[in-house]
Amino acid sequence: MKIIGYARVSSREQAENSHALEMQCDRLKAAGAEELLIDIESGSRNDRKSFNKLMDLVKRGQVKEIVVTRLDRLTRSLPTLRSTIDDLQKHDCNLRALDDSIDLKTAAGKFHLNMLGALAEMEVDRLSERVQHGWQHLRDRKVAMNPPFGYTKINDQHQLDYSPFLCLINERREISKAEIAREIIDALFSRKTLRLALREINERYGIQTFAHNNKAGEKKKGGRVAQGVFKFSPGGLRNWLLNPVLRGHLPYLRRDSDRSQIHYDTHPDHQLISDDESREIESILAHNQQFKGYGSTALKYPCSGLVFCAECRASCYSLSGANNYHKAKKLGIPPDMNYYFQCKNWRLRSCNNKKVIRMEIIEAAVVDSLTKKAAQIAAIAQTVTKPAIEPESPEIQKLRSQLFQLQEVNAIAPNDAIKTAIAQIESQITQLRYSLSKSQEINTASHELLLWAFSDAELWMNASNDDKKRVYRELIEAVVVQDGQVVEVRLKI
Predict the structure, then answer these.
(1) Is 10 one of the catalytic residues?
(2) Alpha-carbon span 27 to 67, nearest angstrom
(3) Annotated catalytic residue: which of 10, 42, 44, 233?
(4) Which CATH superfamily is domain 151-208+229-290 in?
(5) CA distance 1 to 30
(6) Please, where in the chain does CATH 3.90.1750.20 lie?
(7) CB-hemisphere CA count at 13 Å for 49?
(8) Helix axes 177-191, 234-241, angle to 10 degrees
């Protein structure tokens, strides 16, 4: 049986840039420790590798005594401390803390141990509270945090980073993170998928990707790793593109849906993505997620990805056929091609909707629906006059009532807590008003797009397929078909 010393520091910085860990190890050796186990982890975590190894040795009966410099080096969690003590007593293993008077063989020693553990846990809780109060203070001041790629933090505000970042030898010029960030966005607009946009940027700047090789015994992790001066995975690029900072807003607690908040237009002069571009990016990402990308061969036609079966609700795949294939091949002329949609589940014989439908029939129904909707909107616009002052929504009215009551109470008896509540309600009102205004702008933009494209249906039919794809994605939710006929055209507006 051995005497084992256990040392722990909370962070890699403490281990490498201070003498805290070295000092612990020296004291443990001087106290008679025959073997040292070391962790660089928080004491509140229960998944520490060396700590778990230590307890495993205790349970095997191979440890006579554990030596630590202080009790909080062993753990900062009171429940973990109690279960550890139970295991030590059960396997007749003593615990010695050099800076604390602890003897597990006496009742006073056990009591003293529990008291020290409770104090250590309280200190951790107090530290957590201080950290939370500090973060809240920064959020109340609207201080910029964690600037994303392309941005820097100056005077507590997000600003585009135009400082030199890369030197392009071939072009003999320097390029900044902000310029590269804009190139990434443009690459998405041109290539239409995250992976193709990444491929273009990686090839442009010589960033190599390689398969992730796992060491023996480690849990396998899929995916690829990018190696270079900057790197994005498809998921990371998606999160970056959707970051409100790029749109001129300041987000807090994005990963916490219950506590997340956004302060709008905090840096409008340093907006990397405009509102129109933001809507287009969200449309591309949503469409790719639903239909597996613009690059799919099933999505090369204007209405691809928008056609659904009325019977089984599955999407319909595109297919083609030639009326004069053999004759055209014999004469060396292009064949007369026809294009159709068919329910994908019929191919698996899990749907009875076998009949195909011509693409021209689907697009004619789409254009007819959008042309009628454009006429309705134009007629309404001519007859309806917009009120000078629009009424506020019920949610804003309720918040304003609460705000008025708090302001009255604060006027009589000023209080910091009430002032904080007033500031939070004012922030909520601002966010709601901004969201409603943006929603109205989106509707207005969709109406303008509809009126521009379908004021003349005959002229629209001569538009390019790329223009048709973009407009149909923006205005059409679904085209439902059955037995070779269009059953319904659902519009988003």
Answers:
(1) yes
(2) 10
(3) 10
(4) Putative Large Serine Recombinase; Chain B, Domain 2 (3.90.1750.20)
(5) 18
(6) 151-208+229-290
(7) 3
(8) 100
Q: What is the dihedral of CA 460, 466, 470, 476, to 10 degrees?
A: 60
Could you give the residue range(s) of every CATH 3.40.50.1390 domain in the chain? 2-140
Burial 335-354 (b: 16+ CB within 10 A, else e): beeeebbbbbbbeeeebebe
Q: What angle, 0 to 180 degrees and rounded to 10, lies between the N-to-C axes of helices 359-383 and 416-454?
A: 120
Determine how many CB atoms are found less than 10 A away from the CB of residue 434.
Answer: 15
Q: Looking at residue 225, what is its pLDDT?
A: 46
Task: Give the per-residue pLDDT at 248.
Answer: 93
The residue behind tokens 């190139």 is 183
Confidence of residue 180 (pLDDT cuts 50, 70, 90): very high
Structure tokens at 387: 């009120």
Calpha distance 68→7 (Å, rounded): 6
Question: Which residue's structure tokens are 């973990």?
Answer: 80
φ, ψ for residue 231, nearest 5 deg = -155, 150
Better-scored residue on pLDDT, 488 or 166: 488
Instruction: Pull the structure tokens for residue 256.
Output: 């916490």
| Secondary structure element (H or E) that encloses residue 78, with its range | helix 78-90
CATH of region 2-140 = 3.40.50.1390
Give the C-alpha separation, 284 to 122, whole Å.
49
CA distance 404 to 411: 11
Q: List the one residue out of 251, 241, 242 whose CA is nearest residue 143.
A: 251
- Give first-to-last CA distance, the chain, whole Å: 77
Q: Which of 11, 76, 14, 63 is nearest to 37 (CA)?
A: 63
Q: Which of 49-63, 66-80, 137-151 has the lowest mean pLDDT?
A: 66-80
CA distance 306 to 290: 10
Please enumerate in sequence order all residues whose Cβ is within 8 A of that of 42, keeping only pairs 6 or more positions apart, or say none. 10, 76
The Cα 328–Cα 330 span in angstroms is 5
Question: Which residues neighbour 189 within 8 Å (Cβ) at sequence distance 6 or greater?
Answer: 277, 280
**Over residues 2-16, mean pLDDT:** 81
In this predicted structure, the answer to whether residue 221 has a pLDDT above a threshold of 60 is: no
Spatial separation of the C-alpha atoms in residues 177 and 206, rounded to whole Å: 16
Residue 298 has pLDDT above 50, yes or no: no
